[in-house]
Design goal:
heterotrimer, A alpha/beta (about 170), B mainly alpha (about 425), C alpha/beta (about 170), A: about 170 residues, alpha/beta, Beta Polymerase, domain 2, two-stranded parallel sheet, 3 helices, 7 strands, about 20% helix, C: about 170 residues, Rossmann fold, 4-stranded parallel sheet, 6 helices, 4 strands, about 35% helix, about 10% strand, globular
Chain lengths: ~170, ~425, ~170
């Protein structure tokens, strides 16, 4: 069985010198890592035979709407053999709005990162296929940012013309 | 007959379709065929667009395109209270609406730090299992209909109508019933509804056997589904599959056992797993899961305690309507909760339940106000659809229909 | 329909009898084209199953091809991305055609007041009957179908007299 001490112990012994903070809230463990080291940390968490976080459940981002470190990319991963869920976070600033992709670690990260790009505009370096997920490609904005209004920007999405064919009154 | 031009298919999608070759865009439109299985199609389980690159009848590459039902749930959740969002969660996986309500209520209760009373938890488990049966019935029926067996579809719809009748008596709506509340359920279960549940589970197993007799040893059904869309256990986990699609590949992972919620650790049921990993295995997993759900409902009916159905937390739980109209404190609490919200403490949680399609997770971030700062819905159908290019490579067009049917996506959930 | 209207331009006894017979035949065999997009599509499927049988009103089949239908039931939320597809399918249906806007989402955007949902399909389609409900019960949809049948029953040949008839070129063997 693994728990907070084991995971943080293994991570700090494998990656000494990288600043990581671990917090626990309502039974869930969250580890904050710097964004440059995200790929090697995820490789270690997946490949280590005791930890074996092989299922990546979710990747998303949070927009804090403040001046430094505006976005945080959040990864939820699960270990099937240990039945343990872990949350990893990495801060991304608006001036350098990119982070390395983890689709080389888990193939399912592909679509999750596309959705995060669509909604927030965070680019993922070395992503095999970075295009929008839900909105049409011609759409110019990123909806889930805090400065995008709920009703949208009029004219950003076109409607078909309302002329009907046939002699219907 | 018009050729597909660059206006119909965006160049980026065509690039993704040609990613593993060195054919250029103009070339491909001349030699191999790009077929558009459009959003309006009888067999794509909703508005799913699939672009296929075909060499004759064999699929060389496949790119699904989502977003035709993207309604902006996550943005709307940031602007409305936790109670107000419950009807929206109904429409996520609209084939099993009660289960989504239960998932949302559990997530908000975890964030706010309250717990529903035992009787409410048992009622929630019962409606969630009924929702699982309803969803699997449609999955079986529409898979059979896509293969060509129309009778089975009508028989499973007949069974599903009985479940919708139960929900009608329980809370007044057949479908998209927002039955759970933060802290409990909306109203107590009537004796009429309980009697109907007992009657339903008594006669369900023989009707299911009748449907199975038509299909299980039917040569056409088996030949169309056996070894079609095979995925190994390692690939399935890597691609993020959850739910019956994962258990059909031999991985015994069920959130009701792994991270138990409500009272599932007191229930005795089997996690159904098949090892072959093809569409037939996924179909059998769903049929067996309905049998296990009947067992669970029987145990719930035996064990259900008496008691309250809403938690006793006046600052966070909406009071009963009868008391709101006649007593002062409840009126004030109702006013405060509706206008200012439940104000959970600052923090964030991720809460996941085992839905009929897979793992439905809610990631909620709260900053102390009445509406969430961020709400992310981890929808199982979207992640399951990611495996479609892997499953359809090298198969024929008619197999694509069978594979989509065996993955059982619901576009309301996949597109959020 | 345009042929009689062009031949007999006024409301004589032949034209009104023609109108009555053709309208009666049309209204008892309205074939719907189910534009099933989301949750309302499930209730539309439920109105076709044996409990709420829609076939006894003449809607025997729900054809999936627009070329064989005369009634389009738009069931489900229409987003901006999907609206082009709906319009394309509507244009492919032959005249005369009618539209039912099923549910709150198609009538006015419903509970989705957000950036990607069209607030009512009457912004780009001419709608005949709006059905309220989220989702409307199958009996509600059958009521809407009966109202469409009444509307079809009142239609006359001169409503379609402005359709341009193609010139028939008769080939002669020389």
């Amino acid at each position: 069985m693994i728990d907070k001490e084991k995971i943080t112990g293994k991570l700090s012994s494998q990656f000494p010198g990288i600043g990581m903070e671990a917090t626990e809230y309502k039974g869930e463990l969250t580890i904050k890592v710097p964004r440059q080291n995200i790929v090697e940390i995820c490789h270690f968490l997946k490949d280590d035979p005791e930890l074996s976080f092989i299922l990546c459940e979710d990747i998303t981002a949070v927009d804090w709407a403040k001046r430094t470190n505006r976005f945080t990319v959040v990864y939820h991963i699960f270990s099937i053999s240990n039945k343990f869920r872990l949350c990893i976070k990495a801060d991304v600033d608006e001036s350098e709005l990119n982070i390395d992709t983890v689709s080389s670690v888990w193939k399912t990260a592909n679509w999750h990162e596309r959705e995060t790009y669509d909604m927030y505009g965070i680019k993922f370096n070395n992503h095999p296929d970075l295009r929008r997920m839900y909105l049409p490609e011609e759409f110019e904005y990123h909806p889930l940012r805090k400065d995008f209004p709920l009703m949208g920007i009029p004219g950003s999405l076109p409607l078909p013309s309302s002329g009907n064919t046939g002699g219907k009154k | 007959m018009q050729k597909l031009t660059k206006e119909d298919v965006h160049p980026k999608i065509v690039q993704a379709l040609l990613a593993d070759t060195d054919i250029t865009i103009d070339d491909a439109l001349e030699n191999e065929m790009i077929l558009n299985m459009g959003p309006q199609h009888p067999a794509t389980h909703g508005v799913l667009r699939v672009l296929l690159r075909l060499d004759g009848e064999t699929v060389n590459a496949c790119v699904p395109e989502l977003g035709y039902l993207h309604r902006g749930y996550e943005k709307m959740a940031e602007n409305m209270g936790y109670q107000e969002f419950i009807p929206h969660t109904d429409r996520l996986d609209y084939l099993s609406p009660m289960a989504n309500n239960v998932a949302w209520a559990l997530a908000v209760e975890k964030l706010a730090g309250i717990e529903a009373p035992p009787r409410a938890q048992y009622i929630r488990m019962m409606v969630a299992e009924l929702a699982r049966i309803a969803s699997h019935l449609i999955a079986m029926g529409s898979l059979a209909m896509d293969i060509g067996a129309l009778t089975v579809f009508l028989w499973t719809m007949r069974e599903r109508e009985k479940i919708l009748d139960i929900w009608d008596i329980l809370c007044g709506a057949r479908f998209t019933n927002s039955y759970t509340r933060i802290g409990g359920v909306a109203n107590d279960i009537q004796p009429e509804a309980l009697a109907k549940v007992k009657w339903f589970i008594g006669q369900y197993l023989e009707n299911l056997d009748e449907c199975e007799r038509l299909l299980n040893s039917n040569r056409i059904f088996i030949e169309r589904l056996e070894n079609v869309g095979v995925i190994s256990a390692k690939d399935a986990i890597d691609l993020g599959l959850t739910g019956p699609s994962l258990r059909g590949s031999g991985v015994e992972h069920d959130l009701r056992r792994a991270t138990p919620y409500m009272f599932y650790n007191e229930m005795d049921f089997k996690v159904v797993t098949y090892n072959e990993g093809d569409s037939l295995a996924r179909y059998f997993v769903r049929v067996e899961e309905t049998r296990e759900s009947i067992k669970i409902i029987q145990q719930i009916l035996d064990k259900m305690p008496q008691g309250e159905i809403k938690a006793n937390e006046p600052k966070k739980v909406l009071p009963y309507k009868g008391e709101v109209y006649s007593r002062m404190e409840e009126l004030i609490h109702d006013f405060m909760l509706v206008n200012f919200g439940i104000n959970p403490p600052v923090g964030e949680i991720y809460s996941a339940v085992e839905n009929s399609k897979g793992e439905l997770g809610f990631y909620l971030v709260s900053n102390g106000e009445g509406h969430p700062w961020k709400c992310k819905i981890r929808s199982p159908s979207m992640v399951n659809l990611q495996s479609l290019p892997h499953l359809t490579k090298g198969r024929m067009i008619s197999d694509v229909v069978a594979i989509i049917g065996s993955l059982d996506p619901v576009m309301g959930e996949a597109d959020k | 329909m345009g042929l009689e209207a062009n031949l007999l331009k006024n409301d004589g006894i032949i034209t009104t009898t023609f109108d009555a017979v053709i309208a009666w035949a049309r209204k008892n065999s309205v074939w719907p084209m189910p534009m099933g997009i989301s949750c309302c599509a499930i209730e539309m499927m439920a109105s076709a199953d044996p409990k709420y049988d829609i076939a006894r009103f003449g809607s025997e089949v729900m054809r999936m091809t627009p070329r064989q239908c005369d009634l389009m039931i738009v069931a489900g939320t229409v987003t901006y991305k999907m609206s082009h597809v709906v319009k394309k399918i509507y244009d492919q249906m032959p005249d005369p055609k009618w539209v039912i806007a099923m549910g709150a989402c198609t009538s006015s955007g419903g509970m989705y007041r957000s950036y990607s949902v069209v607030q009512g399909i009457d912004q780009f389609l001419p709608v005949d009957v709006y059905v309220a409900g989220c989702p409307p019960r199958p009996e509600n949809l059958i009521n809407a179908l009966m109202q469409i049948q009444e509307k079809v029953g009142r239609s006359k040949a001169r409503d379609y007299s402005d359709i341009a008839m193609p010139e028939l070129k008769i080939l002669q063997n020389n």
